[in-house]
Amino acid sequence: MENYKTSCFPTWCPGCANFAVMTALQNAFLALNLKPQEIICSYDIGCGANMGNFLKTSAFLGLHGRSVPLAAGAKMANPDLTVLAIGGDGGQLGEGGNHLIHAARRNDDITVIILNNFFFSLTTGQASPTTPLGIVSKTTPEGSGVLPLDIVNLSLVAGASFVARTFPGKAEHFTGVITKAIKHKGFSVIEVISPCVTFSKEYNFAYYLQRVKEVKTSCETADEALKCARMAKDNVPIGIFYQLEREVFHKLMLKQVGSP
After folding, report:
1. Is the pLDDT of residue 251 over 90?
2. How does pLDDT run across 32-42, given as a tens digit for each residue?
3. pLDDT value, residue 260
C-alpha cells in the first residue's frame, strides 16, 4: 500500500468519502499488481481532484470537467497504460458531460470514477447536476426545482460497456467493483455515492447506508440494466449493472491508420 502513497497528508474534511475512495483504489492497484508508473490518473478541479496530490501514480491535473479527454488522450498515446479519469459530479456531468457521452459511445479503454456528492462542494455548496429535487443550497435557496441527472442511466444510454454504482460504506464491495472496472477492456463508469459531510445534510452517509442494496449479477442488456439500477426513496441499488466486451477505440484507430 505504501507504494501508492505520496508524502502529502490528505486535507479532506474528516469523514469525507474520498479517504475510502483512495484506499479502495490502492487496494485495487495492489490486487492487480500494478506499479505506480504503469498507471495514469487524470483529474479536474474539485475535492476529489486533490487525490492527485496524495495517490502516487502518474497524474495529470487539468481543467474542470476535462479529466475524461485527458485520460482518452493518454490511452491513445500509450495503450499499455492503465488509465483512470477521476472527478466529481459537477465536473463530469456539468462542463464534462459532453466528454463523458462521446467517450462512452467510442468505448475508450479507460475507467471513469464519478464521485457523486450532489453538490459543488469545493466552492462551498452550490447545486450540481445531480442535486436532488427540493434541496436547499447556496444557488437554490428555495429548493432545487431542476431534475437531477442519473449517472448510471446516462452512461448506459450513451453506450458505456461497463456501468456500476457503489458506496464507500461497503468497503469490500467497493474495492471489488473498482478492481473489475479497471480489468474491463472498454469504457468503464463507476458512480460512487459519496455524500458530502459538510453540505449534504438530508442525503447523508447514514441515509445511504440504510438504503443501499447490492445487485448480485449484471444484466444481459442495457434496457434491463436501466430498470435494475433505478433508484427509489428507500432503495439504492449498487453493483455492476452491465458489462459487455466490444472493440475499444484505440484498437479501432490502429486498424484504420496502421500501427506506428
Report:
1. no
2. 999 999 999 99
3. 54
Element (H, E) at 189: strand 188-193
| DSSP structural state of residue 243 | E
CATH, domain range 2-257: 3.40.50.970
Contacts 24+ apart (CB under 8 A), 125-131: 125/196, 125/198, 125/199, 128/88, 128/89, 128/90, 128/93, 128/94, 129/89, 129/90, 129/93, 129/94, 129/97, 130/89, 130/93
Angstrom distance (rounded) from CA 64 to CA 74 = 17
Q: What is the pLDDT of residue 210?
A: 93
pLDDT at 259: 59
What b/e sequence results for 72-82 when a residue is b if at least 16 CB atoms lie within 10 Å of its CB, and e otherwise? bebbbeeeebb
Phi, psi of 221 (to 5 degrees): -130, 160
CA distance 190 to 163: 6
Q: Where are the domains of the chain?
A: 2-257
For the ranges 110-119, 131-140, 147-156, the lowest mean pLDDT is seen at: 131-140
How is residue 70 written as a grid cell?
Answer: 485527458
For residue 23, what pLDDT band results from cuts at 50, 70 and 90? Answer: very high
Of the candidates 216, 212, 92, the one whose C-alpha atom is nearest the C-alpha of residue 160 is 92
- Asked whether the beta carbons of 25 and 59 are under 8 A apart, the reply is no
Task: Please state, in angstroms and rounded to a whole number, the distance separating the CA atoms of residues 166 and 244.
Answer: 19
Residue count (the chain):
260
pTM score over 0.85: yes
Closest CA to 30 of 179, 190, 240, 191: 179
Q: Running DSSP on this structure, what letter comes out for residue 87?
A: E
